Amino acid sequence: MSVEELKLSYFFENTESFAVPEVFEGVEYPWEALQKATQIVDERVEEKKLQVNEGTLAEGSYLHGNYLIGKGTQIHSQVTIEGPVIIGENVTIQSGALIRPYTVIGNNCVIGHGCEVKHAIVGNGAKVQSFTFAGDSVLGQGARVGSGTIIANRRFDQGIIGVKVGDMYTKFGTDFFGCVLGDFSRIGANSATLPGTCIGPYTWVFPLTRVHGFVPKETRVSTSKELKLHPE
């Protein structure tokens, strides 16, 4: 496999500045980083039965299992965190959010009200807005996922996930994978990405858009449907 557009370096810069930079070390493709993250969370948190929260936990929120949560992080009421997880510094997790096992969240992130984040890497400064599902995904630094967006992480036929770039189809070797969202890219509200979607950096997906496959960097993506008004 030698598709340059699918390599980690196409989507993400300055990976050494991530809160847990080791998840990207020795990794050639983004989906491999999720496997690496699972290994690191196991080594640093699960195997040591670590339960360290240096942030603030509001009344009515729950920490289950093992976790490492950095300084300045604010966990609002009615949040559920299912370990093992690693959460960086100065993160805001708003009320009703669910963080599921083997998620790694960088520094200065926002996880919105009612979000579900499952087995994902969330880059420094990224924001996942209210009522969003982000499963088995890698989100770059400064990325934005708008309210109500679904990052689907499993094919309808439960088959192996992959993506086509040009004439070459690349399989990821897993039946669970959501989206690669490059640095500073944005997905507008109430959009959906199909499993295996790869969106390059500095790309904007406008609201109410269904996205699949490979989307190059510095691209604007929107639907062509027009609003029709019918008089009574």
Automatic annotation (TrEMBL):
Protein name (database record): Glucose-1-phosphate thymidylyltransferase
InterPro entries (UniProt xref): GlmU-like (IPR050065), GMPPB_C (IPR056729), Trimer_LpxA-like_sf (IPR011004)
Domain Mannose-1-phosphate guanyltransferase C-terminal per the UniProt entry, residue ranges: 81-182
Record-linked Pfam families: GMPPB_C (PF25087)
Key word Cell inner membrane present: no
Keywords: Acyltransferase, Nucleotidyltransferase, Transferase
EC number: 2.7.7.24
Uppermost EC category: transferase
